[in-house]
Amino acid sequence: MYSKIVVQYREAPTDKSDWWELYEPFEETLSDGTTIKISAGYVTDFASVPWILWSFFPPIGKYNRAALVHDYLYDLQLREKELGEKQARYFADQQFLYFANKVDPKGFVRHYIMYQIVRWFGRSAWRASK
């Protein structure tokens, strides 16, 4: 059973995206068995997707869990000190794919495309979190 994601819309600092604030703590177990705890108050945009692609890759919806975990791992830069930037970012991106497949096992082709997009464009977001 999944833990519930409780968010409320929050005015974005710019007009470029929508932001959502976590109103209750959220806990999730990653693919390697590590548990992360995201505190209430954490802010996410879920998925940063250009509006032209929303019909195929919606920024909000059934992939919220995958996007929330991914955003948090990027913000935290989990394991960068131990693994280095490349491997730590790879791990975070793998978690996006893992949770997308968990939520919708039949959508693995779509998830893989989404994962590749995250891989291609995630480097700048990872470095912006520093």
UniProtKB/TrEMBL annotation:
<dbReference type="InterPro" id="IPR010767">
    <property type="entry name" value="Phage_CGC-2007_Cje0229"/>
</dbReference>
<protein>
    <submittedName>
        <fullName>DUF1353 domain-containing protein</fullName>
    </submittedName>
</protein>
<dbReference type="Pfam" id="PF07087">
    <property type="entry name" value="DUF1353"/>
</dbReference>
